[in-house]
Design goal:
Structural class: alpha/beta
Helix content: 10-25%
Strand order of the largest sheet: 3-2-4-1-5-6-7-8
CATH architecture of the largest domain: 3-Layer(aba) Sandwich
Number of domains: 2
Order of helices and strands: EHEEHEHEHHEHEEEHHEEEEEE
Number of strands: 15
CATH superfamily of the largest domain: P-loop containing nucleotide triphosphate hydrolases
CATH topology of the largest domain: Rossmann fold
CATH class of the largest domain: Alpha Beta
Number of helices: 8
């Protein structure tokens, strides 16, 4: 099956998506003659100027104005129509991104998802349409804040992003000067303590920090309360412990679980609440689809009361 790279640009009207796409396609390093399907899912305030593209004949523009037209069959037909080898998408900020993911034909792989925002209205959007703001952030590789002024306080924008995603790179655009976010967020727990104690409200933050930093946590001891999962085929003396985490809204609640190893596992039942103390190792496990991941080697495990609130957030 041929792999089709997909580059997605999200954000609300006036955020700067079209301008970014225009500059990208004017650059011959990217627009090097590869046949590219460009899907425009909204009528933007700015219009593209194909006459300035580095290789205008290689770019095939199609409008998708109705979300109902966002189907696997339609997208596949458009790709074949132009014999395109890659796809760019200017996505409608009012559409949930899951609609596009469900419509992607086999072989389409998202290589980059970038979201754009105008600092003049972003905080208002977050206050009134947080589900849509979060939807465009939770899987984004980067966000570019346009319209920044020298000396402005960027902390409110940083906090919005970090409350939803710890991995998204933040870029501030000062009239063409791009400056990366350098704000360091202190963790609400001591990673150098003999036992890292994770408060009930901080599990989502710790789970996010652990992701990608497993080797830094290897050999450390951690203590927290979580929900036991014993469903499916697990390795001997194994169970999963975690919490339900809300990334941006109720529709995005997922169970963030970690593999545990304990000889006393038979004393546990599915959906028990327990407090564990465990030493972390990094190993391959069936629980991680035979890939490497953190293994919590249980030192102690006791029954616990269900914490309130039961669902935690990433920030």
């Amino acid at each position: 099956m041929t792999e089709i790279p997909v580059f997605v640009f999200t954000g609300f009207l006036g955020a700067g998506k079209t301008t970014f796409i225009q500059k990208t396609l004017e650059d011959s390093r990217f627009n090097n003659g590869v046949s590219t399907l460009l899907l425009l899912c909204e009528d933007g305030e700015e219009e593209l100027d194909p006459s300035k593209f580095a290789n205008s004949k290689a770019i095939h523009i199609e409008m998708i104005r109705d979300q109902d037209d966002l189907t696997e069959a339609n997208l596949g037909d458009l790709l074949r129509k132009y014999k395109a080898k890659r796809v760019m998408v200017e996505y409608n900020g009012m559409w949930l991104f899951q609609a596009f993911l469900e419509a992607m034909p086999d072989g389409w792989l998202i290589y980059q998802e970038a979201t754009f925002a105008d600092v003049g209205d972003y905080l208002s959007y977050n206050a009134n349409m947080r589900n849509l703001v979060g939807d465009k952030l939770k899987n984004a590789d980067m966000i570019i804040f346009n319209g920044c002024a020298e000396g402005m306080d960027v902390m409110p924008y940083h906090k919005v992003v970090r409350s939803i995603s710890k991995r998204c790179n933040i870029i501030y655009n000062y009239d063409g000067r791009m400056e990366p976010d350098t704000i360091e967020d202190p963790l609400p727990f001591d990673v150098n303590a003999p036992v890292i104690e994770i408060a009930n409200d901080d599990y989502g933050i710790w789970y996010s920090d652990l992701d990608g930093k497993e080797k830094e946590y290897e050999g450390k001891t951690v203590k927290f309360t979580g929900l036991v999962a014993k469903a499916g085929k697990l390795p001997p003396n194994s169970f999963v412990i975690g919490r339900h985490i809300m990334t941006c809204c109720a529709a995005d609640i997922v169970y963030g679980g970690l593999a545990c190893r304990w000889t006393g596992v038979n004393a546990l039942h599915h959906l028990d609440w327990v407090t564990i103390t465990a030493k972390i190792s990094v190993e391959k496990s069936r629980i991680y689809n035979n890939g490497e991941g953190p293994i919590l080697n249980v030192i102690s495990c006791v029954k616990a009361e269900k914490p309130e609130p039961e669902v935690v957030s990433l920030g």
